[in-house]
Amino acid sequence: MERLNLPFIAQRRNECKLTLQEMAEALGFRNASTYLKYEKGAYDFKANHLPVLAKKLRCGMLDLFIKMVC
Protein backbone atom coordinates (compact mmCIF):
# COMPACT_ATOMS: atom_id res chain seq x y z
CA MET A 1 0.00 0.00 0.00
CA GLU A 2 1.32 3.41 -0.96
CA ARG A 3 1.52 6.20 1.59
CA LEU A 4 1.70 9.92 1.05
CA ASN A 5 5.06 11.49 1.80
CA LEU A 6 3.84 14.29 4.07
CA PRO A 7 7.34 15.62 4.86
CA PHE A 8 7.98 15.94 1.10
CA ILE A 9 4.69 17.83 0.65
CA ALA A 10 5.60 20.27 3.43
CA GLN A 11 9.15 20.67 2.08
CA ARG A 12 7.97 21.35 -1.48
CA ARG A 13 5.41 23.87 -0.24
CA ASN A 14 8.19 25.74 1.52
CA GLU A 15 10.54 25.46 -1.47
CA CYS A 16 7.80 26.86 -3.71
CA LYS A 17 7.19 29.64 -1.18
CA LEU A 18 3.50 28.77 -0.90
CA THR A 19 1.61 29.72 2.23
CA LEU A 20 -0.72 27.42 4.11
CA GLN A 21 -3.58 29.72 3.08
CA GLU A 22 -2.66 29.46 -0.61
CA MET A 23 -2.69 25.68 -0.37
CA ALA A 24 -5.95 25.73 1.57
CA GLU A 25 -7.66 27.86 -1.07
CA ALA A 26 -6.32 25.69 -3.92
CA LEU A 27 -7.90 22.64 -2.28
CA GLY A 28 -11.16 24.40 -1.49
CA PHE A 29 -10.60 24.82 2.25
CA ARG A 30 -11.45 28.05 4.04
CA ASN A 31 -8.67 28.06 6.58
CA ALA A 32 -4.94 27.48 6.57
CA SER A 33 -5.39 25.52 9.80
CA THR A 34 -7.56 22.99 7.98
CA TYR A 35 -4.90 22.46 5.31
CA LEU A 36 -2.22 22.12 7.99
CA LYS A 37 -4.17 19.23 9.56
CA TYR A 38 -3.94 17.41 6.22
CA GLU A 39 -0.24 18.20 5.83
CA LYS A 40 0.46 16.95 9.37
CA GLY A 41 -1.54 13.74 8.85
CA ALA A 42 -4.49 14.43 11.17
CA TYR A 43 -6.76 14.18 8.10
CA ASP A 44 -6.17 12.14 4.94
CA PHE A 45 -5.84 13.86 1.58
CA LYS A 46 -8.52 12.64 -0.82
CA ALA A 47 -7.85 11.35 -4.34
CA ASN A 48 -9.18 14.55 -5.90
CA HIS A 49 -6.64 16.58 -3.87
CA LEU A 50 -3.63 14.83 -5.44
CA PRO A 51 -3.65 16.47 -8.89
CA VAL A 52 -4.07 19.88 -7.25
CA LEU A 53 -1.19 19.21 -4.85
CA ALA A 54 1.07 18.05 -7.66
CA LYS A 55 0.29 21.11 -9.77
CA LYS A 56 0.76 23.60 -6.91
CA LEU A 57 3.96 21.87 -5.74
CA ARG A 58 5.29 21.55 -9.32
CA CYS A 59 5.96 17.83 -9.07
CA GLY A 60 4.59 14.58 -10.40
CA MET A 61 1.77 12.80 -8.58
CA LEU A 62 4.05 9.83 -7.90
CA ASP A 63 6.46 12.20 -6.13
CA LEU A 64 3.79 12.68 -3.46
CA PHE A 65 4.16 9.07 -2.33
CA ILE A 66 6.78 7.30 -0.25
CA LYS A 67 8.82 4.93 -2.37
CA MET A 68 8.16 1.48 -0.89
CA VAL A 69 10.94 -1.09 -1.20
CA CYS A 70 9.95 -4.76 -1.17
UniProtKB/TrEMBL annotation:
Domain HTH cro/C1-type: 9-64
The protein's name in its UniProt record: XRE family transcriptional regulator
Superkingdom of the organism of origin: Bacteria
Classification via SMART domains: HTH_XRE (SM00530)
InterPro entries (UniProt xref): Cro/C1-type_HTH, Lambda_DNA-bd_dom_sf
Species classification: Bacteria, Bacillati, Bacillota, Bacilli, Bacillales
A GO molecular-function descriptor: DNA binding
